[in-house]
Amino acid sequence: MPANPQGRVRGKLALVTGAAQGLGAAHSTLLAREGARVLCTDINANGAAQTAEAINQECGAGTAYSIQHDVTSAADWEAAVDAARDHLGGLSVLVNNAGIGVAGNIESCQFEDWKRCFAVNVDSIFHGCQKALPLMRKHAPGSIVNISSIAGLIASDTMPAYNSSKAAVWMLSKSIALHCAKQNMNIRCNSIHPTFVDTPILDGTAKHAGLDKQVLLDKLARQIPLKMVGEPIDIANAVLYLASDESRFMTGAELKLDGGISAM
User: Fold this and answer.
1) Cβ atoms < 10 Å from Cβ of 177
2) pLDDT exceeds 70 at position 181
3) Which domains does the chain have, with CATH numbers?
4) Catalytic residue among 65, 118, 162, 196
């Protein structure tokens, strides 16, 4: 826990998807530490509940709640927004964090995997923003934070589905930002573009590649100018900034957390 939390999002009401582990758990925890109340959602209901329980043990009962949530389902999104209204009293911050990767180049990638990648990474944001904005308008100022990837800005021959879906998140975020601004909603929307981050996803990657986890981390770090792989807190700090009123003049922007890769 930070030595001196400043309450940078005190009074904010946040919904974080993919909150069972990794980045989503880090976002939820830091927002709570800085004064927000948080609804942790994930298709892994037990994992989301564990994140919320850990937050409540640290920050006090009633700080966090959890629900099971399939982000590809419009009906589940309606239930999630209702849960935010019932448990938090409203919604002012939406963190669209849930996402998946899909293997295979343009010849080997299966179309079903392509569609699943877009459903989780892009359709989720369409449904989420469409369902959440009516409630968020009542609790402005608000902020939507969409987790994209540096892979949405820099392509690879091995991941067309992931590249394309994360690029769609980037552009969709801009469209949402302009809509909210034109409608005078006082709701901002920005995207975050991380490179490699040390989360449980890399455990599976290492296992699939037949590598020791540290060997994989060292290999990935060599591809980054700063020679380090990100930690979840590095991304959570950016989410905190975008969720707070400190970023009130920032919308339709992309925040690159890539250790310098995109500068090459």
Assistant:
1) 21
2) yes
3) 13-195+232-258 (3.40.50.720), 198-229 (no CATH)
4) 162
